[in-house]
């Protein structure tokens, strides 16, 4: 069928909204009419070229929800009219990682940035009007008015789910909340630093708060971000890591933070090193932010790593299992314990996507959201 969507022709480049063809769903696939999509910083990494992809043109977006419009043959579990949220990481349910409670590391992730189907590098579901294949971000592309996806990327949710905000569960909420709760293993009474308060970092603040941290120190150069952090659970908010480290020491007999979660927009080795110097002996730095994927090296003192048993830990989707954790976090929202409405600070039309990313760079949003 005909659709429209935001596509990168090359990188570096910008998202252009254009007419496209999207295929009917095959076995194991559904076609979804999109309702809303968050504007995650990771799609900006595609545009800058920091995260190169396997196919251009490439349709962006990986944080969304919509309504099932058609279901492939012999594809149980979904029906037209169902509401679904996408997980930016697919889960096959059968690989070693899925079978051991690490769906975020599912083997289907290997071809996530290729743009084709996970199991077939030659097979695409979206095309330009002249037939040229178009890659799909994370196999989903939530910047499309209609998208055909594998059921491995979809989580069915209740009919009364407000997709306009619940779409954030597809990336930023699970990523941030899980970076504190799962990856950082924040404990009651802990002192935690969250470095970078965007869509991801604000959810790390919420996660640290749920886990019972006593001191949650948010760091961001933008005053609006610091205010938002304080309104959603941060006990302190400062504009630099040196001050955050001093505050952490003041609560820990001079030892340092138990956990530092790094969620800045463009990751650099030096930023991880700042977090490393802010934690206590045997503390943990959780690295969630992404940057130039080819960059190598974190300038940390090796002696401190060994002698103080400090840990540096990567986090994909905050160590979440999307099949279980997306419904769990939705339940917390429904119970009033997890804030989502407050995070979607500005809504945009698909045609205004460039403005959405401009506003992200200007620090105006916690999360910009496209409403289709
Ligand atoms: N690991 C994962 O699974 C995963 C998933 C989604 C996004 N990400 C990555 O997480 C990062 C954050 O994404 P986002 O959508 O929240 O971005 P964002 O742009 O909304 O937020 C980033 C925040 O970092 C702040 N910042 C920039 N430099 C800083 C510094 N030196 N110290 C403190 N704060 C600083 C900015 O002011 C901004 O508020 C991105 O790199 C994104 O690609 C990772
Ligand atoms: Zn994301
Ligand atoms: Zn798997």
What does this structure look like?
The protein contains 11 helices and 18 strands. Helix 9 (302-307) links the parallel strand 15 (279-287) and strand 16 (311-314). The strands form 3 sheets. Strands 3, 5, 6, 9, 10, 17 and 18 form a 7-stranded mixed β-sheet that branches. The model has no long low-confidence stretch (mean pLDDT 98). By secondary structure, it is an alpha/beta fold. 26% of the residues lie in helices and 26% in strands. The protein folds into 2 domains: 2-170 and 342-371, Quinone Oxidoreductase, Chain A, domain 1 (Alpha-Beta Complex), CATH 3.90.180; 176-316, 3-Layer(aba) Sandwich (Rossmann fold). The longest helix has 13 residues, at 322-334. It is globular, with a radius of gyration of 20 Å. The protein binds nicotinamide-adenine-dinucleotide and zinc ion (ZN) (2 copies). One zinc ion (ZN) binds at residues 40, 42, 62-63, 88, 171-172.
Q: List the helices and strands in order.
A: EEEHEEEHEEEEHHEHEHEHEHEHEHEHE
Number of helices: 11
The CATH class of the largest domain, by name, is Alpha Beta
**Main sheet attributes: strand count, strand direction, barrel closure:** 7 strands, mixed
- Helix amount: 25-40%
The CATH topology of the largest domain is Quinone Oxidoreductase, Chain A, domain 1
Shape: globular
Q: Could you tell me how far the N terminus lies from the C terminus, measured between alpha carbons in angstroms?
A: 17 Å
Total count of domains: 2
Given helix and strand content, the structural type is: alpha/beta
Overall pLDDT, averaged?
98
| DSSP strand tally | 18
Strand content: 25-35%
**Ions, cofactors and other bound molecules:** nicotinamide-adenine-dinucleotide, zinc ion
What's the gyration radius in Å?
A: 20 Å
Low-confidence stretches: none
Query: Based on the structure given, which CATH architecture of the largest domain is correct?
Result: Alpha-Beta Complex
According to CATH, the homologous superfamily of the largest domain is: Medium-chain alcohol dehydrogenases, catalytic domain
